[in-house]
Amino acid sequence: MRPMNVSSGQSSAAHPLLEVRGLTVALPEGADRSNAVEEISYQLHSGKITCIVGESGSGKSMTANAIMGLLPKPHVKVSAGQLLFNGSDLLARPDSEMRTVRGADISMIFQEPMTALNPLLTVGEQIAEVLCKNGPLPRKELRDRITKLLADMNLPEPETLQDSYPFRLSGGQRQRIMIAMALALNPKLLIADEPTTALDVTTQKQILHLIREQQKRHGMGVMFITHDFGVVAEIADHIVVMEKGEVVEEGSVEAVLNSPQHPYTRKLIAAVPTLDDHASTTPSEVPLLSVQNICKTFKTRSGMFTKKREVNALRSVSFDLHEGEIIGLVGESGSGKSTLARSVMQLSDIDSGKIAINGEQIGSLGQKLPSFIQFVFQDPYASLNPRRRIGSALTIGPIHHGVPKAEAISRAREMLDVVGLDASAMDRFPHEFSGGQRQRIGIARALTMQPRVLIADEAVSALDVSVQKQVLRLLEDIRLKMGIAILFVTHDLRVAATICHRLLVMRKGEIVEEGPTREIFENPKSEYTKSLLEAVPGKNWHKPVLEERV
What we know:
Blueprint: H1 6-13, E1 18-26, E2 35-44, E3 49-53, H2 60-68, E4 77-85, E5 88-89, H3 95-104, E6 106-109, H4 113-116, H5 123-131, H6 139-152, H7 158-161, H8 171-183, E7 189-193, H9 201-218, E8 221-226, H10 229-235, E9 238-243, E10 246-252, H11 253-258, H12 263-270, E11 287-300, E12 309-322, E13 326-330, H13 337-344, E14 352-357, E15 360-361, H14 369-372, E16 373-376, H15 380-383, H16 390-400, H17 405-418, H18 435-447, E17 453-457, H19 465-482, E18 485-489, H20 493-499, E19 502-507, E20 510-516, H21 517-522, H22 527-534
Parallel strand pairs: 3-8, 3-9, 6-7, 7-8, 13-18, 13-19, 16-17, 17-18
Antiparallel strand pairs: 1-2, 1-4, 4-5, 9-10, 11-12, 11-14, 14-15, 19-20
């Protein structure tokens, strides 16, 4: 873990860049509680990175939106307290003045760059809007400044990249564009709201290094919102822990991570998966799912201004998945993990090769396929119909495949019990559940078809550590009770270490290494696998052994 600069921290302590003082943000009537945050206080300093951690609903992002003046008024509003930025209360400033503060003095990096970027404007046009906030600039000067910003973000070919549209860039590149926009006017305070949650470990490492590098270069204060304690160990100088709208613990990174005092903090740290956790099992001899030499190439047509492109997404991929086994599919974005998962589900055609379940070619299963294999999606909210009650979502599949309605309802209730939810959930809508509960519903929906194989595509990547631990334990319980096999797609190697018996490491459409999880983690053969393990955030932080307190 990175050592703290104690002397620097002491010199800046007398004059905080931002002071949150007694802040209370009121929620509208009918919400699950009256206030999103209640009388919270903490300080952020120039040249320091303060990590705000806590589970979903703890008030982390709501506080950030209050600082930025982006609360959805009048339904959600600050009812008490002050936000002192360089001694001046942001809450006392009119909206017109806050528009000048945003970008120039305080900037924000949003969690999902694809939704924050305008798909109809080029990268350069969107950065130009920020740079021209205080008045137009000559075209050449504007392009030169955009090029320099993109170069500072270590983006390739910055001169031509600024003419690209967001959808043509990778997730890591889009996140760098968001950082470039946030830093365009050299703000004094940078708010980063979960900027690395959905990124693979190598891209995540690059983004964390970039934020630290830019913070040092510009002397900014950084408010870094995250639920990933590996990231906290990697980047934080100071930690603020929030639970249900209250600050329950605060201190230096060493104090909070290695000697947590509050029960909530101790619970969160106890739930953090580590590279030292290794699952093991003795699989059956006969493979349940067999993939043999499958290949897939994506081709784009040539146009007036574009060349024909071919991308080899899968190159002679082969593996066997046995009953009761969990195989982890790991690798960077673009490695072919999701293409492989979709191919097994027949959501994507393959060019050559064979896929079989119980020795039967998957293409010949036809209507019987859903009874053999099911998919758990990364975002359960997006995969659930918001207008359909949970009972309907769980029974529509079995009924469509010939199961009597009464049996389908009984099976749905049974699966809700398996995933730890009450049968009353049948009458509720998706928006009435938390993220972790919706993921459980997604698992229950897959299980109602009584599959032999379950594919989980980044099923826990966006969940808080405590909810993540619950879902991982749930998948393990289901494996033991029902004997199903699981293909677990993930970019988080710590999660893979916790639940997967074997690993398939993919790079550019190929399996570059495979074997028992413990063996790969303790003695990786491939240089690519070594680079992935080296990039795991917080790998040098050894989670303390926490005893239960009475």
